[in-house]
Every structure is written in C-alpha cells, then in structure tokens.
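One such shown below:
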Amino acid sequence: MALRILLIALSLVSLLKAADEDACYATNGALMDRQSLRTPLKSSCDLKDEACFAFVPDIDTMTIELGCAPKSALPANCFNKTFTCNPVSPFLHNDKTGFLCCCRSDECNNPSKIADLLPSPTSVLRETEQISYKWWHFPILVFCSFAVVLLFGVIASVLVILKNITKTIITNNAIDTQMYSRIHFQKAEQLRVNREIAIANVDVAVQELYHFLVHRRLVFVKNSDQKLKKKPPTQHVVIKMSLRTLDDLERRVSEQPHLQTPFPLSKNDAPREEF
C-alpha cells in the first residue's frame, strides 16, 4: 500500500515537472518548405542554457529550420526574452549562411508569429545550380549579344537597301519625267519650226507664182497702190486652169500664143513688174 502511494506521488511529480518544462517549435529535419509548414512539432528546451531559433538560409529562402540550440551555438542577443534577428550580418549554421532569429521564452519561435520578421519567401537557386549557372551564363550571354547585334545589323542593312531602292526609283522617275518633258518640248518646238518653215515655203511659192503670173500677164490688178510693190495684191483675177507646178503653167502658156509676152521669161532671173 505504501509502495502504491509512492508510485502515484512520483507520477504526479513527473507530470507537474513536464507541465512546467519549456518547449520550442522544431522542424522535422534540418530544413522544411515554409509553405508546407502548417503545425510544426514541439520539442523540450532548457531555456536556462538553450534558446529557440528560426533560421532561413540565403541559398533558398523558401525553406526554414526551427529548433532549440545551446548557448555556445547562438549569438549573445539570443538569450533575451524578446524575439531578435540579425538582418545585418549573416549567421553561419550547419555550413550555411542565412537569416537567424532567436529568443528565450516558451514557444517563442512560432512561425505564425515571426512570419513578418523573416525574409519574404522567394525562390532562389541552390548552391549546385549557382555553380552550374556560372559556367554556361557567359557563353549564353555572348551568344545572345552576338545574335542581337547581328539582328540589328540585318535590320539596318535591309533599311539601307530599301532606302537606296526607293531613292533610285524616285531618281529614275524624275529623270523619266524630265526626259519626257524635254522630248515633248523638242517635239513641240520642232512642230513649230516645221510650221514656220512650211509657211515660209508657201509664202515664197506664192510670191514666185504671183510674179510669174504677173509677168505672163495672167493677173489683172484692179488697185495700183504703191504698197503692192512689197506684197501681192489681194484683189486679182487668175485664169481658170488646173496647175500643179510652174512647169505646167509655162507649158499651158506656151500652148496658148495669145497669152505669151513679147519677151522670153527666164527661170533664174524673171523680171518683177512694178505697178
């Protein structure tokens, strides 16, 4: 009976001791994904010589480590009852540098309470990926730069070619327009000159025919004005016959003796009759 009472007393003491024991939140493993961390485990922690901490590595801020660490492994400011962090100098923990927050009170490293103090969860490359990134980054950068320069060179060449083609088309159109204008002007000028020559030839032919008719007395002048010496009279009567050339006229006159003059007419020096 006495033994039974002693066992009950010891169990009550152990229960009271367990109730008074401090605890910290801890992750199941060194690192866990912060987004999948819902209800982390609790582990006992002697807050006299230990402190609760939350560690976020620089290599991947999507992960976090919660636990209890001894005094020798934590900075001196971790043994304050308030939750403190070291955002200035990185903390080395398990061969990883990162952001450390710590405190010395029961369950003070609750993730829901310290979420605003921790770095924002952004995905970064792992250490191995960073190492592999360094050796292929430079060739890719050189290739992309060369491709961009080549693309700009091709675009510039195409623009220059299009500009030259457009300039050539405009120049050819201007030359064609200028040549067409010159040809049109020369054609009009030639027509004008030909017309003047034709009018002059007709005038000469009329003058020669008139003097020939006057000399052969085939024209009877009604008005004997002095001005008729300079130009043919406008009032005259010509014999009615079909004539095409001066030779036809001379032949017709020779066939009609009553129209012949008493003196011969030379083709080269035919006299001009004055009125």
The beta strands are 23-26, 32-33, 41-44, 50-57, 63-70, 84-85, 91-93, 96-103. The longest strand covers residues 50-57. The CA atoms of residues 79 and 260 lie 159 Å apart. The radius of gyration is 64 Å.
